[in-house]
Write a structure and sequence with these properties.
The protein has about 325 residues and is of the alpha+beta class. It has helices spanning about 5-10, 65-70, 90-100, 100-125, 145-160, 215, 245-260, 275-280, 305-320; strands spanning about 15-20, 25, 35-45, 55, 60, 75-90, 135-140, 170, 175, 185-190, 195-205, 230-235, 265-270, 285, 290, 295-305.
Length: about 325
């Protein structure tokens, strides 16, 4: 990346710092930005056994594959000593295109070439490594308009066709459900054998206007500030996949994504019969029941993400030790 591109990115990106040993990315976790390393070195761990690894440093970009494809990180990245970086998200790239279109075009071409090279490099490095068969199930963060439209169609299919419910945001001709929270939210898609089977959308308090939802979900009556909170504002899974791993995997994708973004809590509403299930995951009720315009009678609940992440890490350590 040349000096002109670096200077252009410094004008639109957010500077972030990482202490020695701190993860910049965790393998499989979704992120909403690319990182351009400006100071320090980063260890890129590609394999579970830590035996396939690379090191990158100032001037290198990391996280571009997941950002551009909507997939989770394909490596765990850890700071080797103090690290400074530029966080480049979709808003930063949009601003760059408006303010410096020539530099923006260069940056986008650079990212495309880098992604192609890195993908081929990773395939070569991991060619001799035995990996667990992931099957035909995949989670994507919607990073393109086509992916977003697919998510909006899944919502319509589930809410309006399968459940037989109505929505003020449904477009019956297009077969979609679209509302204003799509502009500030992040949607995920669950695919089985390449076909969309579910979707979820999460909105972060620092990016969204929650309006009356703050009162409905009882946000101000909890220990979490709006800026540290997120709300799952859409959850739709096709009937054949409800109660299976699709739900759990989608939730894990959201939890990892928002927690890695510095968010402390996830708020959600569920039908009363599912409240006990959410409670087993660590959710707690936050306010009285209310009527949701698509789901009907709903229970507002919240999950402390720090506590959830600590519990999941502990359970993962137990699982790994058990099978050694």
């Amino acid at each position: 990346m040349d000096a002109a591109m670096m200077e252009a990115l410094e004008g639109v990106a957010r500077r972030v710092q990482f202490d020695d040993g701190t993860p910049l990315r965790l393998k499989g976790v979704f992120a909403s930005d690319i990182l351009l390393i400006t100071e320090g070195d980063v260890d890129c761990i590609l394999s579970e056994g830590n035996d396939i690894r690379l090191q990158v440093g100032p001037g290198d970009i990391v996280g571009e594959i997941g950002f551009l494809t909507g997939k989770g990180a394909n490596a765990t990245l850890r700071a080797v000593g103090p690290v400074s970086a530029l966080s480049i998200d979709g808003a930063a790239l949009g601003r760059l295109q408006q303010e410096s279109p020539a530099e923006a075009a260069q940056v986008l071409r650079h990212l495309a070439g880098l992604m192609r090279h890195r993908t081929e490099e990773n395939v070569d490095l991991l060619s001799d490594v035995d990996t667990e068969d992931a099957g035909t199930f995949e989670i994507l963060r919607c990073s393109t308009l086509d992916q977003q439209r697919t998510a909006q169609k899944v919502r319509y299919d589930v809410y309006c066709l399968e459940f037989g419910r109505t929505s003020p945001y449904a477009d019956t001709e297009e077969g979609t459900i679209i509302d204003d929270l799509d502009k500030s939210g992040t949607s995920f898609l669950a695919l089985h054998e390449g076909q969309p089977i579910g979707t979820v959308r999460v909105n972060l308090g620092r990016d969204s206007d929650f309006g009356p939802m703050i009162e409905i979900y009882g946000v101000n009556d909890t220990a979490f500030a709006v800026q540290d909170a997120s709300i799952i504002t859409k959850y739709a899974i096709r009937e054949a996949y409800r109660g299976g791993s699709a739900y759990i995997r989608l939730f894990a994708a959201i939890a990892g994504f928002v927690h890695s973004s510095g968010v402390k809590a996830i708020f959600i509403d569920c039908v009363p019969k599912l409240a006990r299930f959410y409670a087993t995951m660590g959710f707690e009720r936050t306010a009285p029941d209310f009527v949701h315009y698509e789901n009907g009678l709903s229970v507002p609940m919240v999950l402390d993400l720090d506590a959830y992440a600590a519990r999941m890490s502990f359970e993962e350590r137990i699982r790994r030790n058990r099978w050694r």
